[in-house]
Amino acid sequence: MSFDRDAGGRRIARRGGGGLVTALSGLLAHHDVTWIASAITDEDRLVAVERGSEPIEEQTREGSSYRLRLLAHDPLAFDRFYNGVANGAFWFLQHYLWGLAEEPVVGPDFRVGWSDGYTPVNRNFADAVVEELGREPGSAVCFHDYHLYLAPAFVRERRPDARLTHFIHIPWAQPDYWHALPGDIRRAVHEGLCANDVVGFHTERWRRNFVQSCEAITECRTETAVYPIAIDAGEFEALRESAAVLEEERKIAETRPELLVVRVDRTDPSKNIVRGFRAFGLLLERHPELHRRVGMLALLDPSRQDVPVYAAYRAAIERAAAEVNEQFGDGTWRPVDLHVADNFPQSVASYKQFDVLFVNPIFDGMNLVAKEAPLVNERGGVVVLSENAGAHEQLGAWTLTVNPFDIEGQADALYEGLTMAPAERKRRNAAISAFVREHDIEAWTDAQLADLDRLTSTILS
């Protein structure tokens, strides 16, 4: 949740996007929660100053009540924390995006980012958690993701009895890859996480990597568990018939070709969009009988455009799409229909319309698109899914599996999906939909809290 001003100057609240928001929305719906978050916008910072340490009473758009406490960090420290270390280093490391021959460069700027950015912001969060524990001493503390690796240890120092859990929403890299960072930093990351009573991951693969890296990098240990994140199936089944989605679906239906490949992503290098366009181009090269019958609708949310690497990747995406269109398109047929915008109703509408959903990330902690889209799809659509997406561990039996680096293999999988018998397509789609409905977001939250209760009650006894 963040704050802004509308055209009339009134303060308004906006819901954020992404897997973390989905996770927290489920938590807020079923538990009494104080959400501690960074003040991001100028209006956020004004709210933080106005309220001090007093949380704000808020409601989700679904009507769930919660308390929101915003932390206004020093702007330079926050930039070093968020862009320099969290997104500039940990995101790239944990998604295996560094080539190592040239990246990373751990120079003085990175060291300052660690000491004067990541560390003090984590201390700010820890201070706020300790204050909230003073109000509610028995509360469970749920840390989320790669931004707060140090905070659990800072809390544990002052509150040894605190009940702490941490969920990592992104992949965990194998031990050797962590050696791209200096020894003191990689040890601090692992020791910070080991201060939790339990650390959770989407998949057994990421959990196993974490255990192995703890063994290789430090002597600390903690309980680990696998909690694959779910979605709110009811929310998407309601959205599919909303006025905004129906209007976007009308536009897609009016212009779609006979066969439609859909991808919905952020313009993030980890999402592997450029290779995906090249694979689609190879499909068209090898199967001219599909010309003018098939098209790709690519709906991309612009991500972190103030970071040079992300801006450069967006430009590469646009070039790759243009190359396919120039090579194969004509005056009446444009093979790749690229939209770079934040338009959630359009994304849900495309979920309903796909014949093939193309999800080919280099690495992904889970990837909720692979769960959301089949749930509302109305064409018996097939999912082409990267073996390195966390969702593959749950859904792989009903998808067409691809190696995200193998362009030829991806082109072949697209062809297989487009030509698959309708009965088999429907069987696979129905199986994914049933799985998603059965494994819902409430169960995901309850499993983590149940494990925390079990572990801490055992310690106390």
Tell me what you see in this structure:
With 461 residues, the protein is an alpha/beta fold. Helix content is 51%, strand content 16%. The chain has 3 domains: 2-70, no CATH class; 73-230 and 442-460, Glycogen Phosphorylase B (Rossmann fold, 3-Layer(aba) Sandwich); 233-438, Rossmann fold (3-Layer(aba) Sandwich), CATH 3.40.50. The protein has helices spanning 19-30, 42-51, 75-94, 108-135, 151-158, 175-178, 183-194, 204-217, 233-239, 243-255, 273-286, 308-328, 344-353, 369-376, 392-395, 407-419, 422-438, 441-460, and strands at residues 2-5, 11-14, 34-38, 56-59, 65-71, 140-144, 163-167, 198-201, 223-226, 259-266, 294-301, 336-340, 356-359, 382-386, 400-402. Strands 12-11-10-13-14-15 form a 6-stranded parallel β-sheet, sandwiched between helices. It is globular and about 70 Å long.
Average predicted confidence as pLDDT: 92
Content-based structural category = alpha/beta
- What CATH architecture of the largest domain do you see? 3-Layer(aba) Sandwich
Terminus-to-terminus distance: 38 Å
Radius of gyration over C-alpha positions, nearest whole angstrom? 23 Å
Low-confidence stretches: none
Total domain units: 3
The spatial strand order of the largest sheet comes to 12-11-10-13-14-15
Q: Number of helical segments?
A: 18
CATH class of the largest domain: Alpha Beta
What assembly state would you assign to the polypeptide chains in this entry?
single chain
Indicate the CATH topology of the largest domain.
Answer: Rossmann fold
Which descriptor suits the 3D outline? Answer: globular
Quick one: CATH superfamily of the largest domain? Glycogen Phosphorylase B
